């Protein structure tokens, strides 16, 4: 293939993710991708895709992966089918983007990785939160060293409300841990580094009408890394900021639109030593910190370069120039490892 060839895509599943995320993103990248086929059991959705893309439309997944025009299959079918459909697509000679969660358990994730290895095809997982502008800014500030040694990182996603769709049911691989938790978990793992952390978890059913968890608390602890506190819930009436970072030279707070951080140079503080004598006027140790403050705001250009756009831009480099996948299956497997640990620790 020529390096400037478009990638012919087949989208499996035209629901929230397949249509509202993947189809919309791919349409905005016409110089790189061409949606040539879709698959969905609902006729109205197939007709909508034909009208939108002028593509072929199949009622069955197996028909899509038999289409010789399709080079890349986007697996956006229900979560419990991700492993089955990904392995089938890889075995049929297709490269695959699998929606999150990668699978419903670690064994399925391992089978998917083995299928990619055997077939030599590209497998990447749509964990686009690794390309979110706010996460990238937080990561940049932490890695700059301005905040000193990082002590604690809090990553929160708070909502309040009931859900009653298929993603609330265990039999379909539902629950907040797999649905939305994967985004925060993969960010946390990248901030911790290449380590297997200790995992503490609390899972609860609160407002959901289904039988899966909708309130999750995870603590990740690894030697030489900051403690990471992850919280995502549908039972928080007073949402807190998405980010809070504590360091020995400063801190950071913020959300997806605004990040603020302040820090100081330790050399700007007067020298001190421990004293055992009573403090003057029975006072506490207080000193003026010469803070430097900075902030980042989500710009319009940042917004239009959101995670999914960047993900597919990087994937094009993988498919046409041999660059590494935007999210390797091994990184996504680590997320599944944390999820499995959580389920081992908790019963819902």
Protein architecture, described:
With 348 residues, the protein is an alpha/beta fold. The protein folds into 2 domains: 7-126, Rossmann fold, CATH 3.40.50; 131-305 and 336-345, 2-Layer Sandwich (Dihydrodipicolinate Reductase, domain 2). It has 11 helices and 14 strands. It has helices spanning 16-27, 43-53, 61-65, 82-91, 106-119, 133-144, 176-179, 181-192, 300-303, 307-321, 329-345; strands at residues 7-12, 33-39, 56-58, 72-75, 95-99, 123-126, 150-158, 198-204, 215-221, 227-233, 243-247, 250-254, 258-263, 292-297. It has an 8-stranded mixed β-sheet, with helices on one face. A hairpin with a 3-residue loop joins strand 12 and strand 13 (258-263). It is elongated and about 80 Å long. It starts with 6 loop residues before the first strand and ends with a helix.
């Amino acid at each position: 293939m020529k390096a400037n060839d478009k990638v012919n895509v087949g989208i499996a599943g035209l629901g929230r993710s397949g249509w509202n995320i993947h189809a919309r993103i791919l349409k905005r990248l016409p110089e790189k991708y061409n949606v040539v086929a879709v698959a969905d059991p609902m006729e109205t959705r197939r007709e909508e895709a034909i009208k939108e893309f002028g593509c072929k439309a199949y009622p069955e997944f197996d028909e899509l992966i038999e289409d010789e025009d399709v080079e890349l299959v986007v697996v956006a079918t229900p979560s419990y089918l991700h492993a089955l459909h990904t392995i089938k697509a890889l075995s049929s000679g297709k490269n695959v983007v699998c929606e999150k969660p990668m699978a419903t358990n670690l064994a399925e994730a391992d089978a998917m990785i083995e299928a990619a290895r055997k077939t030599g095809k590209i497998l990447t997982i749509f964990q686009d939160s690794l390309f979110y502008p706010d996460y990238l800014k937080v990561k940049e500030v932490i890695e700059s060293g301005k905040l000193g040694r990082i002590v604690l990182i809090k990553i929160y996603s708070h909502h309040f409300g009931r859900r009653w769709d298929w993603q609330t049911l265990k039999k379909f691989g539902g629950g907040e841990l797999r649905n939305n938790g994967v985004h925060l978990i993969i960010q946390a793992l990248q901030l911790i580094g290449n380590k297997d952390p200790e995992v503490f978890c609390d899972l609860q059913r609160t407002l959901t009408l289904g039988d899966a968890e909708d309130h999750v608390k995870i603590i990740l602890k690894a030697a030489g890394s900051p403690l990471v506190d992850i919280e995502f819930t549908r039972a928080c009436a007073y949402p807190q900021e998405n980010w809070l970072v504590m360091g020995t030279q400063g801190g950071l707070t913020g959300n997806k639109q605004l990040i603020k951080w302040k820090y100081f140079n330790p050399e700007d503080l007067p020298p001190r030593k421990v004293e055992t004598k009573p403090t003057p006027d029975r006072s506490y140790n207080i000193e003026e910190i010469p803070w430097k403050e900075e902030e980042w705001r989500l710009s319009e250009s940042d917004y239009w370069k959101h995670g999914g756009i960047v993900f597919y831009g990087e994937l094009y480099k993988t498919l046409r120039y041999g660059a590494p996948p935007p999210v390797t299956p091994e990184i996504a497997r680590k997320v599944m490892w944390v999820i499995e640990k959580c389920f081992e620790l908790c019963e819902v």
